[in-house]
Design brief:
The protein is built from two helices and six strands, in the order H-E-E-H-E-E-E-E. The chain has one domain (10-148): Thiol Ester Dehydrase, Chain A, CATH 3.10.129. The chain is of the alpha+beta class and 149 residues long. It is globular, with a radius of gyration of 15 Å. Strand 1 (28-33) and strand 2 (37-43) form a beta hairpin.
Length: 149
């Protein structure tokens, strides 16, 4: 069963995460089960700054930014219930088993699915997947730590 919140759009995301353009890579949260799972989307447009150099004649979203989008969705899940989240930051500790299945290009909509594998007070391990049109484009196991700002 998913929790539906009225403001899980970009305004809600910006109230939870410190990221801003051009590095805010989640546009909307579709589903959230606190401390368990989140589904979010990133609309990939040709206007993204990174497409100017990656690659001008054949635009491809850098894989590291696909990973970052997955990490940000995971961060939203982790920060969802934190009462003093404005005083916290989440940092990567490891990225394991990262695999890229196909390029992400302008016009794609990334569907990001995160499941918590292990959750401790400040450490978390998550299974992350990114899909476009139901096809897996990237996956990884992400670990992170929450720290005071």
């Amino acid at each position: 069963m998913s929790e539906k919140e009225p403001l899980m759009d970009i305004r809600w995301i910006m109230s939870v995460m410190p990221h801003r353009y051009p590095l805010l890579l989640v546009d909307r949260v579709l589903e959230i089960e606190p401390k368990k799972r989140i589904v979010a989307i990133k609309n990939v447009t040709v206007n993204e700054e990174f497409f100017a150099g990656h690659f001008p004649d054949h635009p491809v979203m850098p894989g590291v930014l696909v990973i970052e989008a997955m990490a940000q969705a995971g961060g939203l899940l982790l920060m969802h219930d934190v009462p003093d989240r404005e005083n916290k930051l989440i940092f990567f500790t490891t990225i394991n088993k990262a695999k890229f299945r196909r390029p992400v290009v302008p016009g794609d909509q990334l569907r990001i699915e995160i499941d918590i594998l292990r959750l401790r007070e400040v450490f978390c391990k998550q299974s992350a997947r990114a899909l476009v049109d139901g096809q897996l484009v990237a996956e990884a196991v992400l670990s992170s730590a929450m720290m005071d700002r």
